[in-house]
Amino acid sequence: MTDMPPRGAPPEPPATSAAPDATGTSEAARTAPVATEPQRAVFNVENLDFYYGSAQALRGVSMTVAEREITALIGPSGCGKTTLLRCFNRLNDLIPGTRIEGRLDFLGQSLYRSGVQAIDIRRRIGMVFQKPNPFPKSIYENVAIAPKVNGFKGSMDDLVEESLTRAALWDEVKDKLKASAFSLSGGQQQRLCIARAIAVRPEVILMDEPASALDPLATIKIEELMMELKTDYTIVVVTHNMQQAARVSDRTAFFTVDVTDEGRAGVLVEMGTTDQIFTSPTDQRTDDYITGRFG
User: Fold this and answer.
1) Using the 8-state DSSP alphabet, how is residue 254 labeled?
2) Is the model's pLDDT at 33 over the cut of 70?
């Protein structure tokens, strides 16, 4: 990618402690590791403002996303969580009239400086959307299409199998790879979209409420998959499900809407380890939100 830091093998994660327990989840989710100190910074955000035309959506956001952790973005509707998520891989560039101010670094270099190509960014920072959005193609082609476009030279069959296996879907589809992706259930389609995202071997996976349209059993599978994928990927997830954030994330950032004379805008209230945010938040607004008193 133009002027961006090269891909590199990340260091081994340090020893971790157990994640906070939560009712209604699997053993895999309950034993999720939580890092006590941040790893290498993947994203550094400093005083970020974002605008849709004249309307400000985010104000003064500063935060760090650490390598090979799951960072959850929580907060009420309209507080800018998805807008921030889309800033991380420049998807907002596709919306006319948007602009960003402040600094957003990826591996120590600005994502928005001159010469950086957004399409290259999106190869390294994948996205999984709220609703499954498979292509109107076979299961095989859904996984293979992006590597083909990117000029992949290895064994495509092996890459498809590897990606579907990493997405915990291979055993369910290996005998019907030529079938339409639309023949799959909603949960399977979402895992197919995750396989499609990791087929280009990104370094970061962004997830925008990846289980909100799924039933509880499919949700558990997605959460277990997230826990497995974080051994190799940095994951940032937007969720409205407080139990989900508690189950799967290492760190949680709470956003809310701030109303001033200048208008409404999303602001970051606080960020910390998920255990700290859910058991001893430093801001009363955070405590009110996670305990259901507003939002």
Assistant:
1) E
2) no
Q: Which residue has the tokens 């799951």?
A: 70
295 found inside a domain: no
Rounded Cα gap, residues 40 and 67, in angstroms: 5
* Span 191-215, average pLDDT: 95
User: In this structure, what token pair is assigned to residue 150?
Assistant: 């990117």
Residue 271: beta bridge partners? 253
∠ CA 98-103-104, nearest 5°, is 85
Q: How far apart are CA 243 and CA 155, in angstroms?
A: 40
Residue 268 dihedral angles phi and psi, to the nearest 5°: -85, 120
Assess if residue 246 is contained within a domain: yes
159 alpha-carbon distance from chain centroid = 22
Question: Alpha-carbon distance 5 to 234, whole Å?
Answer: 16
Could you tell me if residue 236 is inside a domain?
A: yes
Q: What is the CATH number of the domain that holds 247?
A: 3.40.50.300
Phi, psi dihedrals of residue 91, rounded to the nearest 5°: -70, -25
Find out whether 217 and 51 touch, Cβ atoms under 8 Å: no
The answer to pTM > 0.90 is no
Residue 230 lies in a domain: yes
Domain that holds residue 266: 40-131+205-290
